[in-house]
Amino acid sequence: MTDLEMVPNASCVAIGGYGLLIEGEVGSGKSSLALALIDRGAVLVGDDGIALERRGDALWALPPPNITGSLHVRGVGIFDMPCAAAQLSLSLWLEQKMNYTVLPVPRNRMLEGIVLPQLSLRGDDPYLPLRAESALAKYGLPLAGTMV
């Protein structure tokens, strides 16, 4: 088996099969967003680190080998939950303080030679789960082997 590339301090969930990578500084709300999205039907891929694997022209997020199925809920503890791998479609970068723009332009995030769109959102936004789902629908890459 080859060594997997790791994205430290990141969370990831799958929404309808589409992988949403959640990045940001420590304390920015990554695990909280993952928990809120799981409550809305998403599936955990991983928390506090994500393993990456390139499969052809697609990038897959895998549960981290050492903490598979664990989600840290701040102030409550660590919970075990089902998890799955997912093809990455979008990266969100959570900011502590930022102003939203009317027409945001996603940046490019290069991982394992694959360009992934990345959008910044406020980690303390009460509507963050809805914005994250909307961002995935609008800016996410299609899954490999699917028609657009």
UniProtKB/TrEMBL annotation:
It comes from the Bacteria. One of its GO terms (biological process) is regulation of carbohydrate metabolic process. InterPro entries: Hpr_kin/Pase_C, P-loop_NTPase. One of its GO terms (molecular function) is ATP binding. Keywords: Kinase, Transferase. Pfam families: Hpr_kinase_C. Residues 10-81 form the HPr kinase/phosphorylase C-terminal domain. This is Serine kinase.
